[in-house]
Design goal:
Elements (H helix, E strand, L loop, with lengths): L5 E10 L2 E11 L3 E6 L6 H9 L6 E6 L2 E2 L5 H7 E4 L11 H6 L14 H13 L15 H15 L3 E5 L7 H16 L3 E5 L3 H7 L2 E5 L5 E5 H4 L2 H8 L3 E6 L2 E6 L5
Length: 260
């Protein structure tokens, strides 16, 4: 049996004076999308950062394709796994194309330049994010939503096997939210592994195979989306009453305060 693309074992995530996640264990195979849900401050971002290696694990281990993450060369690791952070800061002027091209760096040999294939892959990533017409724009002139889509294009250009996406639909209008989720669902269907933090329960229900619920006090629950996404589970998760509605045969979850 092949090793899972991503395997997390007994992971602890702590902040001063508080344990957010205790003994978290899960595996994500190629072909799967896992959504991570929870209130603000429950450890969603820190969990992704711990998996990616941006912060030391308080306990536990991470394996990529069966290998201990910490034994994998940095450039090789970047070819296997990519992290989309919540925020991207631009200090210096650069074109949209040049910024997206940074996603190709793990694939470019040292002391070499990008090839025509790298440029083509980057253009495709921009097109996927509806940015093809802005390739020559200065990144500092982009709107918040355009900059968010550019950050996603950088990750797409990286072409890893495992995508770690921290709230990718932040700042996006509804159409671009759907475009982003459809693109990563497509990548999962093509054999990639996708782990995505979300605040939109309904997008998680629509696109994710499984959901990981983080309660912020060490507890967590993991299960198939159609099983674990219930009004009872979500009411506890978000510490507010949630209600399940049926609209044209589709289940939708809303805060019960929004229901007359």
């Amino acid at each position: 049996m092949n090793a899972a693309a991503l395997s997390v074992s007994s992971l602890d995530v702590n902040v001063p004076g508080r344990q957010l996640v205790k003994q978290l264990s899960f595996a994500v195979d190629g072909g799967e999308m896992l959504a991570v849900l929870g209130r603000n401050g429950t450890g969603k971002s820190l969990t992704l950062h711990s998996i990616a290696g941006l912060r030391d694990c308080d306990a536990g281990s991470i394996r990529i394709d069966g290998s201990d993450r910490d034994t994998i060369d940095g450039r090789e690791l970047a070819r296997r796994i990519a992290l989309l952070p919540q925020h991207a800061d631009d200090v210096f002027p650069s074109s949209v194309l040049e910024t997206a091209m940074t996603g190709r760096y793990p694939h470019v040999p040292a002391l070499s330049w990008e090839t025509s294939a790298d440029v083509a892959i980057t253009h495709d990533a921009l097109a996927d994010m509806d940015l093809a017409a802005l390739a020559n724009r200065d990144v500092l002139t982009l709107s918040g939503g355009e900059r968010r889509r550019l950050a996603i294009a950088q990750v797409l250009a990286q072409q890893p096997a495992v995508y770690l996406l921290d709230e990718p639909i932040n700042h996006l209008d509804p159409q671009h939210q759907l475009d982003v989720m459809r693109r990563f669902r497509q990548l999962a269907d093509e054999g990639c592994s996708v782990v995505v933090t979300l605040h939109d329960v309904n997008l998680a229900a629509r696109f994710a195979d499984r959901c990981l619920l983080l309660f912020g006090d060490g507890r967590w629950e993991l299960g198939e989306s159609d099983r674990i996404l219930t009004a009872e589970h979500l009411s506890e998760l978000y510490a507010t009453p949630m209600q399940r509605l049926e609209v044209d045969g589709t289940a939708l979850f809303v805060s019960s305060g929004l229901v007359a």
